[in-house]
Amino acid sequence: MMSAVRYQWTRRAGLVVVDCDGRDIATLDKSMWGERAGVAIEGRSWEFGKDGSARTAVPLGGGTPMVARRASIWSSQWQVGTDGAAYTIARAGLFTSRLEVCRDGAVLGTVASSSLWSNRPFLEIDSSVPQTHAVFLLWIAFLVRARASASASSTTS
User: Fold this and answer.
1) Which of 16, 78, 103, 150 could crosslink 89 through cysteines, CB 3.0-4.6 Å?
2) Burial track 136-151 (b if 16+ CB lie within 10 A, e otherwise)
3) pLDDT band at 130, cuts 50/70/90?
4) 85 bridge partner residues
């Protein structure tokens, strides 16, 4: 990585706020039903949602959507397509919950949790990645980690 920036996920006043190195850049208003959110990234409105098995980020007012799909039904790897770039998100190893974000086979960043007991992710990624892409990658990483947490808790009950 050349120079990395840190995107942090926090909750404030019922919203999720994403900051980049201490500066608020996005807000997410998560839906209680499904994997959906109304999002504002640097003042531009987006709708994060589902389209079949894909997870989407659609800019309101027009533009190129971003789409994330699992690589296969047996894989935990996600392929993320954006305007001009393709990323993958996958576990960094067998015995870790950390995720790696790659582009063209090179690791650009990692996603981890701010504590052992929470699912508040943070993303440390190369500064060349556009902020809209980084916020969507952080959203997908949140969904991956939330699913893994739900799956683990259901198997221990």
Assistant:
1) 78
2) bbbbbbbbbbeeeeee
3) very high
4) none
Closest CA to 2 of 144, 122, 129: 129
The pLDDT tens digits for 54-89 are: 999 999 998 999 999 998 877 778 999 998 899 999
**Could you write out the three-class secondary structure of the chain?**
CCCEEEEEEEEECCEEEEEECCEEEEEEEECCCCCCEEEEECCEEEEEEEECCEEEEEECCCCCCEEEEECCCCCCCEEEECCCCEEEEEECCCCCCCEEEEECCEEEEEEEECCCCCCCEEEEEECCCCHHHHHHHHHHHHHHHHHHHHHHHHHHC
Residue with tokens 């683990």, as numbered in its chain = 152
CA dihedral 120, 17, 128, 136 (to 10 degrees): 70
Q: Which residues pair with 55 in a beta bridge?
A: 50, 68
